[in-house]
């Protein structure tokens, strides 16, 4: 009889049987996920109490329940001390702390942690126990959701739970390989899924949301490649004002892991090399159009892009950049780094006060090209002051925005080009 009582305390036997059904997990790139979980319950007629494992980041106010009956109450238990039944107070327990220290004694309280009194009378508080056992039987310290459900009839029922949880995230990584002639790019995408909780999901359907959702919640390792074959682009669709991507096959999302899922490979994307001078070094970027005519034409989730170039003597890393969420039809520009053979200098030729708060300044931009072919360099200047106007310029220019002027300068092979302009500005 004693053995049966202890087992009931330790195993936390509930009034009904719980059978888990593969879930759908929708992950947002803001550290949250929406879980849709089906469980099959064997309910007795009347009030039933069931405990269902959930992630530690479970958001109680987000819970939705659909079943043929009435929900009497719900409560979330974060694990550890919450997992010990009240009837265990006064019994002998063994508790291991996070640092490996083992405490043995009489359970005094589970408020704020596990409080026990050892044989010398010393009181110990273990706030974050790693392991607990009662009379040699291990206690499950995992978080759980406790539901009181009222059923009109006895029998098996399917219960749909929907809730938010923290501890999950996703992102994109791209590898761009530039051809040896520098004219084509092969773009390969990888979806990165992260589960930082102690709660594993096995064989779940994964959906990914690209876009920032508004939130009201407050305060709430190892990387490996997933064993999946390369696949076509993820099916995507509009969802509210966001993009929704659905992985084509169920995924195992282990606890405390980050996994990589192939997104797709797009070879032969025509690219343009763009040189920009903005007062410092001449920067080089790769630009391409995200459309079907150029080998793409799909929404590109925002993420990091690492650029390489294929060469006869091996592959060379040439830079990295980050792109935002890019719809089909938009241009993508990837900043690779600074050009070695193209240099520029900016010189202020004069700056004089012509009235109370108005000044006139003149500038010269010199560009030098040490390549054996001509190049085009975009020169961006940002005049000072609240208001300004260009009074003289050696070359045509445009004004992309209220604070920028843009010159497009041709620089001959192994040669130089110069831009001068005068601006009047006031504060």
User: If you average the pLDDT, what whole number results?
Assistant: 85
**What is the C-alpha radius of gyration, as a whole number of Å?**
32 Å
Measured as a percent range, the helix fraction is: under 10%
Q: Outline the biggest β-sheet.
A: 8 strands, mixed
Into which percentage range does the β-strand content fall? over 45%
Tell me the overall shape.
elongated
- The count of domains is 4
* DSSP strand tally: 33
Low-confidence stretches: 1-16, 216-233
Number of helices: 1
Summarize the structure.
The protein has 427 residues and is mainly β. It contains one helix and 33 strands. The chain has one helix spanning 2-11; strands at 17-28, 32-43, 46-53, 64-66, 70-77, 92-97, 102-109, 114-117, 123-126, 129-134, 137-138, 144-151, 155-166, 168-178, 184-195, 201-210, 222-225, 236-239, 242-246, 251-253, 257-270, 272-277, 282-289, 303-311, 314-323, 331-338, 342-353, 358-369, 375-381, 387-393, 398-401, 404-411, 415-426.
Structural overview:
The longest helix has 10 residues, at 2-11. The relative contact order is 0.12. This protein has four domains: 13-78 and 142-166, Immunoglobulin-like (Sandwich); 80-141, SH3 type barrels (Roll); 168-272 and 284-330, no CATH class; 342-426, Immunoglobulin-like (Sandwich), CATH 2.60.40.290. It is an all-beta fold and 427 residues long. Strands 1, 2, 4, 13, 16, 18, 19 and 20 form an eight-stranded mixed β-sheet that branches. The protein has a six-stranded antiparallel β-sheet with strand order 9-8-7-6-10-11, covered by helices on one side. The chain is built from one helix and 33 strands. Residues 1-16 and 216-233 have low confidence and may be disordered.
